[in-house]
Design a protein that fits this description.
This protein is α+β, with helices and mostly antiparallel strands. Helices cover 26% and strands 32% of the residues. It contains 6 helices and 12 strands.
């Protein structure tokens, strides 16, 4: 095996992921061949929007087949945890009553149906309540620990919970409040990665994403 790649179906949308070529076999067109094979398989499923997160190395390959840049994700790292940010006010543990609301909020903000991804770890969620209603959630056991919030207050409070003990963060550059929080709490910005799309644009709200799931799902 000298190269791998995967496509992940989310109903009407699809993600390309894990497209990797062994260092000794790069610059031979293998990455492009893998991408084309994946796209041919996706075409048979009639999915209209294909997304991916691209490094600088992969970006030229994806552009060759028609992917365009949508935005960038800012990548942050901190050397050590501070353990002084936790505030449990208005944050409660997951109950089954929240399940459908989480699915609904996720669809509204991401523009995708990620129900099957969320379902496996949803019970680990922490929920932020405003006036007794859910306005954000944090799923610590899902990928990098996604945080989705309708309000800045909910997003920042859930970030305090997550980043009390976690030293890596990736969020869309549109989320100015989240980026400000990270910089104020000792995080150093690294090289960004690009979100790219092939096909129809999707309606999403990057300013409401306070930490992504992973490079496989945005």
């Amino acid at each position: 095996i000298v190269g791998i790649g995967a496509s992940i179906s989310l109903g009407k949308t699809c993600w390309l992921a894990h497209i990797i070529v062994d260092y000794s076999y790069r610059n031979m067109g293998l990455g492009l061949r893998i991408v084309n094979k994946l796209l041919n398989d996706i075409e048979n499923r009639d999915q209209k929007s294909i997304l991916l997160i691209a490094t600088d190395l992969g970006e030229p390959v994806y552009k060759k087949v028609g992917f365009k840049i949508v935005t960038e994700y800012a990548v942050f790292k901190r050397e050590s945890s501070r353990n002084n940010m936790i505030s449990f006010e208005n944050i409660v543990r997951y109950k089954e009553d929240f399940r459908e609301r989480i699915y609904e909020m996720d669809r509204m903000i991401t523009g995708e149906d990620r129900t099957n991804i969320l379902a496996s770890t949803i019970q680990s969620s922490m929920i932020y309540l405003q006036d007794g209603k859910m306005s954000g959630y944090f799923v610590p056991k899902l990928g990098d620990g996604t945080i989705i919030a309708e309000s800045k207050e909910a997003g920042i409070e859930l970030m305090k919970l997550k980043f009390n003990s976690t030293n890596k963060a990736v969020i869309p550059v549109e989320n100015k409040a989240g980026i400000k929080f990270l910089k104020e709490n000792g995080f150093r910005e690294l090289s960004p990665v690009k979100r790219m799309i092939l096909g129809q644009d999707i309606g999403w709200k990057p300013e409401n994403i306070y930490n992504r799931i992973s490079g496989n799902f945005g």
